[in-house]
Structure formats: structure tokens, C-alpha cells
Amino acid sequence: MTETSPHSFHTTRWSLVSRLRPGSDASGARAALGELCQRCWFPIYAYVRRSGQMAQDAEDLTQGFFHHLLTHDLMAQARREKGRFRSFLLGCLKNYMCNEWQKGRAQRRGGHLTAVHLDGLEAEERYRVEVAALSTDEETTFDQQWAQGVLDQAVRLLREEQVSPGRFELLQPALTGTEDREAIMQATGMNEAALKVAIHRLRRRYREVLRQVVAETVESEADVDAELDYLAACLRR
Fold first, then answer.
1. Does 116 lie in the same domain as 52?
2. Axis-axis angle for helices 55-71, 120-130 (nearest 10)
3. What is the pLDDT of residue 72?
4. pLDDT tens, 107-134?
5. Same structural domain for residues 36 and 118?
6. Could you tell me if 33 and 66 are in contact, meaning their C-beta atoms sit under 8 angstroms apart?
7. Are residues 35 and 144 part of one domain?
8. pLDDT for residue 127
9. φ, ψ at 162 (rounded to 5°)
10. Domain boundary residue among 133, 162, 187?
11. What is the pLDDT of residues 162-220, one digit of tens each?
12. How far apart are CA 36 and CA 40, in angstroms?
């Protein structure tokens, strides 16, 4: 049986947004921006790279975009009732890219954003492995990487609430139906019936966590199923 510990979810994207609005504490805003960067940077980097920018320019533009979000108070325009956070962020990115192209330069990294970690080598390696071979446009790339990020976050949260992390690592392939049940039974001592129950409970909890992750980025609970369907379709492309 997969056991879980009491768990409270990480700060949601929408509560991060509220900490970036005018009047917020400056140090708290910087911390919130750093957390937002870590959650959202790769879909943004992949979009910029797919648009035709070289790796170094894409890194600079990604950093510059987050700087732009903060210094232009764009988060003041973000409201949960206006729809999906994914769509809001992509719209801001498109506008930023258009402005940068018109100016004929990329905003360089630096200033008070230096606390935000963006490893250029990691970014480009991920892009090469996950994105470069795909025949998709930049907007589809953004949505696909956003969808993968949502799944990754759900798995991370699920892992964090496990009482037995080692058992979770053995059972995790069951989330995608790729588990080796004989190997799991040998490693854990579970019989077939117990393993079926453990997998059923893990998958059910994963679906619950995934819904909560998606619910953080849409207007209401009524929008969760549509967003889940859309993200699943993105990953099938």
C-alpha cells in the first residue's frame, strides 16, 4: 500500500501573482518572481528558441521577459477571473517578443533579477532533447512544455507526500502504465492483490493532485476538465 503523509500544496501560481502586484513587499516580490521563473521558465525558453532565436539570445530574452513582467507591473493585469494563467503568460510573452524585435535587440540579463537561476546549458540540453526534433510551431511548443510541466509538478507533489519514497519510485511507472508488476512484487514483498490496490490508490491520488495543480491556473473548477483535455491533446501532438 502506498501511504501518504499530511500535505499542503506549494504556493499556487495565482497567489504568486498577487505577490507581484504593485504595493507588494519588494523582497517578497523578488522571491515570488524567482519561484515563478523556476516553474515557468522552460516553456518560455522553448517558445523563444522555437521562434528562431539562438541559445544565448533565447536565454537573455527569457530572463528579460521575467524582468519585464515585474518592472512593467504586468501582474497587476492578471486576474484569475480573466481565465487561464497559461494564456495570460503566453500573451505577455508574445507582446514582449514583438517589442524586442521592433527594437532590434534583446534585453540583457542583470539588475535585481540576478537571484533568478537560469542555467543556459541545462536549458539548451533540455531543448535539444525535448523540443528540437518536434515539428511544431512556437505556440504549440509553449503549450506542450507547459503541459509537461504540469505533469511534472503533479508527480513532484505526489512524491513529497509519500511516507515511503522508495516504494513510490518503484510504483511511479504505474502512473503511465509502464510498470513491471513482477519486479515490484519481488522488491516490495507485496502479493498481486496488494499491488493492485496500491496502484489503484496511487493513480487515484495522482488524478486528484493533477486536478489541483490545473485548478491553480484556471478561473474556476468548471474549467479544470477542459484544461486537462487540452493539455492531454497537446502532449499527443
1. yes
2. 110
3. 67
4. 444 444 444 556 656 788 888 888 877 7
5. yes
6. yes
7. no
8. 84
9. -80, 135
10. 133
11. 888 899 999 999 999 999 999 999 999 999 999 999 999 999 999 999 999 898 888 78
12. 6
Which neighbouring-strand residues pair with 4? 162
| CA neighbor of 49 nearest in space, from 118, 3, 112, 116 | 118
Q: What is the DSSP string of 10-60?
A: PPPHHHHHHTTSTTS-HHHHHHHHHHHHHHHHHHHHHHHHHTT--HHHHHH
Place of cell 493513480: 203
Q: Which three cell numbers stand for residue 171?
A: 510504483
CA-based radius of gyration for the chain: 20
3-state class percentages of the chain: helix first, strand second, coil last, to nearest 5: 70, 0, 25
CA 25-29-51 angle, 5° bins: 155
What b/e readout covers 13-48, taking b as 16+ CB neighbours within 10 angstroms?
bbebbebbeeeeeeeebbebbbbbbebbbbbbbbbb
In a domain, 142, yes or no: yes
Q: CA distances (Å), 152 to each of 25, 181, 229, in order?
A: 30, 23, 17
Residues ≥6 apart with Cβ < 8 Å to 4: 161, 162, 163, 205
Residue 187 sits in which domain range?
137-237
Residues 123 and 148 occupy one common structural domain: no
Using the CB atoms, write b or e for 93-123: b if 16+ within 10 Å. Answer: beebbeebeeeeebbebeeebeebebebeeb
Q: What are phi and psi of 75, to 5 degrees?
A: -65, -20
For the record, the C-alpha cell of 16 comes out as 504568486
